[in-house]
Amino acid sequence: MRLRPTIGLITAECFRTHTSETICGIITQAFSADCNIVILSAKNNFLGKVTKHNYHEADLYELVKSSHFDGFIYDRNFIYNDEIVRKLDRLLKQTQKPVMLLDGVEHPYFENTISHDPEAFERLIEHMITIHGHRKIYCLTGIKGLPQAEERLQAYFNVMKRHKLYYDETYYSYGDFWRDAPVMYAQRIIKGELSKPDAIVCANDIMADTLIDTLQKNGLRVPEQIAVTGFDGYLDINQSHISLTSFKKSYFQLGAEAFRRLYGIITGKKCKRIQNDSDGILIGRSCGCIPAQEYSSESTRKAMQINAVEEEFLHSDFLFSTLHTNSLKELIDVIDRNMHLIHRRKRFRMFLSESFIAQLQGEDAEKIKSKPDAYREFLHCEVGKNGLSEPDTVISADEFPAFLSNGSSYPTAYYLSALHINDEHYGIAALSFGKKPFCYRPYYTTFVSYICAALEHLLKQRKTEQMLHQLINENQQNVENPRLYSQLSQIREEMLRKPGYDWSISEICQRVNVSRSYLQRMYKSYFGRSIFEELIHARVNEAKKLLTETNTSITNIAELCGYSSYSHFANQFKAEENMTPSQYREQKQKTKAIK
Fold first, then answer.
1. Which of 17, 267, 317, 502 is the residue whose CA sits 20 to 30 A from 181?
2. C-alpha to C-alpha distance for 213 and 217, rounded to whole angstroms
3. Residue that finishes a domain, picked among 462, 494, 514
4. What CATH number is attached to the domain comprising 11?
5. Is residue 411 domain-shared with residue 310, that is, in the same domain?
C-alpha cells in the first residue's frame, strides 16, 4: 500500500524559465503535502515541422497509463502539435484519474487552474499614466472569451475610468496571445486605420515583442513615438527586439495552486498554501524608462557557478568518451564518472528496455518482439555513493513511477527523459535533485542526447559484429587459409572501430604469425584493399564524421584520427575526398544551414 500519492506532470521543454518556475512551484507544494512528483517532459515542444525523432519524444507520455499515478497536472499550452495533444487528451481521459490543466482553455473533461492577475495588469497601465503621462492608451488583449484576455481587458477599462481618460471601441482589440494578431494590429496603425496612440499595453510579451518589431520595421520608433508594454515576463532581453517593460507573473504560484486544487480533488483535504514573492513590474526600455540592472552578490555567485558547470560540460570530452566505448559496462562507467557535470543533481538513474537489452545480446527478431514493455536499472548514481546497479530486477512500465520512490523516507521528484533515436526505444533516464525544488538546465538535454547516440553506437556495433561473423562463417569455407581470414577479419574490425590507433604491419604480422609479404597479399585478396588503403579509408571516414558533427579543431581531429602530422592528414584527406578538410566542413555546414 502506497503511503504517498504520486502526481504526474506532463510538459515539454521544462528548462524554459516560465515552465521551470511552474514546476518548482508544483514540487515545493507537493513536498509540503508529502507527495511524489514524476515529470514526463519531452526535450522539444513539437512546434513547426516535427521530425521522426522529435515525434517519438512523445512516446514517453505513454507512461501515464501506469496505475500508480493518482492524478496529473497537464501543461497543455506548450505542446504545439495537435496530433500529440489529441493523443495525450485521449490517454489521460482513459486513465479516469483527475487531470488539472495549467492556464488552459475550458476543457470538457479536465479541470483548469488559471492565473488571476487583473490587478497586476492594472499596475502596468498605471505606470504608463502616472510615470510617463500617457493619455491616449490602446489595449491589445488576448483571445476573445478566454478568461485571461477578458480579465486583462476589464482591468484596462477600470484604470481608464479611474483616471477619467477617454476610450472607445477603437482603443482596444482582441488578439491571439501569439505573433499573427499583433502584426495585423500594427498594420492598422501604420496604414492610418487607427490613429497613432501614445502607448499600447499588450496582454502578453510575445504580442508586445511582435508589435514592436513590426512598428519599427515600418519607421515608427519605440518608445519615442509609441510606448509599448508586455505582460507575463515570458521573454528576456536576449529573446526580444527591445528590453520589454512587463510584469513578471508568478508561474511558481500558478504551479503551487494547480497542485493544491488537484490534491483537494484526490484526497478531499486541503494543504497549506506556500508563498513565493516572485512577481512585480519588470522595467525595460519599451515604455521609455531606463532599466537599472541590479544583481546581488549571491545571485551573481550562483550564476557564475551554473555558467562554470555548463562551460565544463561544453568543453568536456563526454561525447567522444561515450562514442568510443565498446560495451554497455564501459558506457555506464563513463556516464558514472561524468555525473559531476550535471549541476545540483542528487540522483541520476538509467533504465534500459528489455527489448534493447535483447538486441545487444544478439537475440533473434522474434524473441525481441516478444519481450515485455519493461525495464532494468543499470545505473543509480547518487551523490556520495557508488553508481553501478545490478540489473537483475525487471520493472514493468506500470510499476515504473512507484519504483522511483521505493525506499525513500521523504517525497521525491524525478524528471524522466526518453532514451531513443527516431523510433528505436532504448530506455528512460531519471534525474532528481533530492529535497530541492530545482529544474535542470538546457544542456542536460544534450547530455541525454549524447547517451542516446552512444546507445545507438553500441547497437550498430553489435549488428556489425553479427554481420561480420556471419560473413566470416560463410566465407571461411571458400578462402585460402580460413584461420588467417578469421584473424584478419577481427583485426580489420578493430581497425575500422579504432582508426586513431598507431597500427603497424609488424605488429599485425606478430599477431597472426605470418610474413609481411604474405600478410599484405592475403589481406588484399580477402578485402579488396591493402592494409594501408584500409587504414587511410577508415581514418578519413572518422575525420569526416568529426568535421560534420563537432566543432573540434582540424588539428585536433588529425591527432584523434592517428596522424602525427597535420600536412600528412590534409594530403591524404584531399586524395580521398578531392577537397581539403576545411572545405569539407564548410560544405557540410552550408548544407545544414539550407536544411
1. 17
2. 6
3. 462
4. 3.40.50.2300
5. yes
Residues 143 and 235 in one domain: yes
Q: How far apart are CA 322 and CA 299, in angstroms?
A: 34
Q: Which domain holds residue 193?
A: 118-249
Longest dimension (CA), the chain: 102
CATH code at position 555 = 1.10.10.60
Of 48, 55, 68, 56, which is closest to residue 3 (Cα–Cα)?
68
- Indicate the number of domains in the chain: 4
* Contact criterion met (CB below 8 Å) for 346 and 412: no
Task: Identify the CATH number of the domain in which residue 357 sits.
Answer: 3.30.450
Residue 192 within any structural domain of the chain: yes
In order, the DSSP letters of 477-489 are: GGSSSHHHHHHHH
Pair 25, 161 in one domain:
no
Task: Let me know if residue 571 belongs to a domain.
Answer: yes
471 inside domain:
no
Reduced to 3 states (helix: H, G, I; strand: E, B; else coil), residue 222 is coil
For residues 311 and 453, membership in a common domain is answered with yes
- Tens of pLDDT along the chain (595 residues) come to 457 999 999 999 998 888 999 999 999 999 999 999 999 999 999 988 889 999 999 999 999 999 999 999 999 988 999 999 999 999 999 999 999 999 887 889 999 998 877 888 999 999 999 999 999 999 999 999 888 899 999 999 999 999 999 999 999 999 999 999 999 999 999 999 999 999 999 999 999 999 999 999 999 999 999 999 999 877 655 556 678 999 887 889 899 999 999 999 999 999 888 877 666 788 889 999 987 554 445 555 666 666 777 888 888 899 999 998 888 989 999 999 899 889 889 999 999 999 899 888 877 666 666 667 799 999 888 876 766 666 778 899 999 999 999 888 899 999 999 999 999 999 999 999 999 999 999 999 999 999 999 999 999 888 877 776 666 565 555 557 778 888 888 898 888 888 888 888 999 999 989 999 898 988 888 888 899 999 999 999 999 989 988 888 999 999 999 988 889 999 999 988 889 999 999 888 877 666 5
For residues 322 and 455, state if they share a domain: yes
Q: In what order do the strands lie in the sheet with 172-174?
A: 172-174, 137-141, 199-202, 227-229
Please report which helix (H) or strand (E) contains residue 405, including its range: helix 400-405
Q: What amino acid is encoded at 287 in this protein?
A: C
